[in-house]
Structures are given as structure tokens and as C-alpha cells.
Amino acid sequence: MIPKLHYISQGNTPKEHLENIQKVCTSGAELVQLRLKNISDKKFLKCAEEAREITAHFQTRLIINDDYKIAKTIKADGVHLGKTDVCPTISRKHLFTWQMIGGTANTIQDCQVLIGKNVDYIYLSPFKLVSEKSNLIPLGLNGYTLIMEALKTNTPIIGFGNITTNDVEAILKTGVSGIAVSDEITRDFNTIRTFNQLLNASSTKEQRYTF
Prior knowledge:
The chain is an alpha/beta fold. The chain has 9 helices and 8 strands.
């Protein structure tokens, strides 16, 4: 089973990413994706190793963004691949059999391609506008509903893109399996408890993070 709530790490530095991962694990997160951009392979590996230590302590699953080699090296729970990253089929050949592979999709066609490549889950995004620079049209509830009705898949579809606690109930009605969150959780780690309650996601008792 793939957790219904995914936290995508944020921070201005690798240290901040690790601090935030520590906080979300303390607050009851069940799955964390380490997402570092514009960083050397050496620094990424070091940060990933430290993230693995933190998540292992809390028995939280760790997904590495983009880099399947690092995911294998540190024995992360899996890798998440964007649309311009290496093909999931190629990654699968290099990873351990128990490691998950996720992919990002924006359209029905994207989802169908990923399902055909046997990914373990799909991020369907963006739900809302993520950046003014983005050329992707937000899918919204109507887009999610149409895609889910067309797919009729058992592959878990995870909503992503500026999702807040206020959106969860309506999003679940579209048929998606869960949500991935970055901004809202980073602003207030206690929202993990609310997200988990809304998703009925956590079988463990959440702890409040105190600063």
C-alpha cells in the first residue's frame, strides 16, 4: 500500500530540506520525497544519506526525486521520475525489485503511458496553478474527474499542485487515491495531522511538532 499523504521536501539549502524532513517525520508523515534541484551529485548523495537516516528512524518511507542511482545506493523506498527524466522501464532494470517508481502526468495520455510502463503510482498535476512561469493548465476538480473516469485504473493516482486542507474532501470524490503536499505542510507541520484525518491516512497516532 502506498500512503495517501506524500510530503515533497522544501528548503533553500540541503540543511533546510533535512530539517523540514525531520519535522514532518516527527509530525506523523508516512512518506517523504526528497526533492533537490540544482545541486551536485555529491551533495545530493550526502543529503539523501542523511534523509535516509532520519526517515528510517521514524519508519517513514523515503522517495528520491529524479535520481534512481542515488535511490538505489541509499536503499530508498523508491524514486519519483518527472516527464523529462529517465524512462521508468530503464530505472526498473537498475533498482531493487522492492523499490517503488512513481511518475508525473498532466494528461490522460501521460497517465496511460506511465500505466503501460508499470509505475507504482502517478502524480497528477497541477491541481491548481503552481507558478506564474508554468505553461501547464491547472486541472482542477473537473480535470481530475474526467481523467479518473477515463482511466479506470488500479494504479494509485496522487493529486499534486498547491493543494490545501480545504481541497481534500472534494479531491477524494474525484477518485484519486491521495495527495502530495509541499507548501502547506512546510508552512505549518501540524497540518499533517489534519491532512491525515481528512484522508483517513494514518494508522499511527500523530504527534504535534513543537518548536
